[in-house]
């Protein structure tokens, strides 16, 4: 038996005369009825004629050739307008969504509350009402509610994590930096940073994970959270070459701390926090005590603080106030 030919292999072409005869037109290689918008699966004259005679012949049988031609032109203009309208609406909708993501990103970068999206939108609408009132509706279509901004930020965070997971597959070596501190609600937050390099010597530095620790913060707890983050990212332990921590016993303890437990998995050498180490070795307490007394004097009274700020402005200082440094560990 001869194999059946596929429809695509027959190379059928739409003929312009069928527009007037059967009220069909060609859109992206598919025949579309100008009256009802129905599609015909196979481009055959029999299919077009059958659709026309069963659906629309009774309504158009009294029209002559010139009237049918005029009817075809009207329907084609109407169809073109509809297509343009929906394309324009789709383009505006995509632009509104993109603008919503951009504003949400800026809010997240600035660390502002998600509720400020509505405030920003209100300001932008008022500015647009004065500068370009014809574009006001387009700006009003940008969704910046609290829930929308939160969803946008979550989607961007998920996308960044997906990108990091893809990049990490090409790492030939990576290092970790771990820091534990408490937030304003007294919840311990474990921040884990990663720096990796691929075979092309392209370096990637990103935050790997942030783990809230609601219970204890022992070396075992920190170790388990770090292991979970590394496992979730599917990073091979044999490519870990260094680990950086602060000076807390739970971090740098040789037996029960994070450093001691990590040595069981890999070896590493820490090269960060050199300034803090040098400061302790040089024994500059006599300098730091003088600085501490000076800072306390400035901050003890409001007048002293205001006079200090005025002095900083008068000398065009880079800092408008005292740059603080707090020794956590």
Quick synopsis:
Helices cover 52% and strands 14% of the residues. It has 329 residues and is α+β, with helices and mostly antiparallel strands. The strands form two sheets. The protein has a four-stranded mixed sheet with strand order 5-4-3-6. It has a two-stranded antiparallel sheet with strand order 1-2.
Provide structural commentary.
The protein is an alpha+beta fold and 329 residues long. The chain has helices spanning 17-22, 45-55, 57-60, 65-110, 116-131, 136-140, 146-168, 219-232, 249-252, 258-263, 274-281, 285-300, 302-314; strands spanning 24-27, 30-33, 171-182, 188-198, 203-213, 240-244. It has a four-stranded mixed sheet with strand order 5-4-3-6. The protein has a two-stranded antiparallel ribbon with strand order 1-2. Helix 4 (65-110) crosses helix 7 and helix 12 (285-300) crosses helix 13 (302-314). The longest helix has 46 residues, at 65-110. The model is unreliable at 5-11 (pLDDT under 50).
């Amino acid at each position: 038996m001869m194999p059946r030919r596929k429809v695509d292999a027959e190379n059928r072409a739409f003929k312009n005369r069928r527009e007037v005869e059967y009220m069909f037109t060609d859109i992206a290689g598919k025949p579309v009825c100008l009256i009802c918008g129905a599609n015909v699966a196979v481009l055959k004259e029999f299919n077009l004629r059958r659709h026309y005679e069963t659906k629309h012949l009774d309504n158009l049988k009294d029209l002559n050739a010139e009237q049918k031609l005029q009817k075809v032109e009207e329907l084609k203009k109407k169809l073109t307008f509809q297509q343009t309208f929906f394309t324009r609406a789709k383009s505006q909708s995509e632009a509104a969504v993109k603008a919503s993501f951009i504003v949400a990103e800026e809010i997240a970068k600035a660390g502002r509350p998600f509720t400020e999206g509505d405030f920003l939108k209100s300001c932008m609408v008022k500015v647009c009402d004065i500068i370009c009132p014809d574009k006001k509706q387009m700006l009003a279509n940008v969704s910046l509610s609290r829930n929308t901004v939160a969803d946008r930020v979550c989607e961007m965070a998920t996308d960044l994590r997906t990108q990091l997971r893809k990049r990490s597959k090409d790492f030939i070596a990576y290092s970790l930096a771990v820091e534990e501190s408490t937030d304003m609600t007294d919840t311990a937050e474990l921040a884990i940073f990663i720096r990796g390099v691929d075979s092309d010597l392209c370096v990637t530095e990103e935050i790997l994970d942030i783990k809230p620790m609601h219970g204890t913060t022992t070396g075992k707890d920190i170790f388990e959270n770090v292991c979970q983050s590394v496992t979730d990212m599917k990073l091979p332990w044999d490519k870990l070459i260094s680990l950086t921590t602060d000076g807390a016993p739970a971090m740098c303890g040789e037996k029960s701390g994070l450093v001691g437990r990590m040595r069981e998995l890999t070896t590493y050498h820490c090269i960060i926090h050199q300034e803090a180490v040098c400061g302790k070795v040089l024994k500059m307490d006599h300098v730091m005590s003088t600085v501490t007394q000076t800072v306390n004097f400035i901050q003890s009274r409001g007048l002293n603080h205001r006079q200090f700020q005025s002095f900083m402005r008068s000398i065009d200082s880079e800092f408008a106030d005292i740059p603080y440094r707090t020794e956590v560990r």
